Amino acid sequence: MNTIKNIEQTIKENLAVMLYFSAPTCNVCHALKPKLLEAIDKNFKEFTVISIDTSIEQEIAAHFSVFAIPTILVFLDGKEFLRKSRHMSVDEVVREIKRPYEIMMS
């Protein structure tokens, strides 16, 4: 079970963290998630991904000011770097992360 404390700790301890907010009733979320996770895995070896079910974990969603799904938050070196909601393409997400990620890892 995710807690705000656990998530904050993970963000602090890992260079690259993605929070993926979705819910069981969200078809877009389910279509996007496997493609996104595969692209992250292929392009960025050092990513920690945490999935958050907003239907159960509303408190966590509120804590991170997430009010629409799907939403992804990407943290690089402990700071929020990217926030995308609703309409996003996997390529777009990868493109936006690639350069800062590579700089950070070099």
From TrEMBL:
GO cellular component: cytoplasm
Residue span, Thioredoxin domain: 1-102
MF terms (GO), sorted A to Z: protein-disulfide reductase activity
Superkingdom of the source species: Bacteria
InterPro entries per the UniProt record, alphabetical: Thioredoxin-like_sf (IPR036249), Thioredoxin_domain (IPR013766)
A Pfam family hit: Thioredoxin
PANTHER family: GEO12009P1
Protein name per Swiss-Prot or TrEMBL: Thioredoxin domain protein
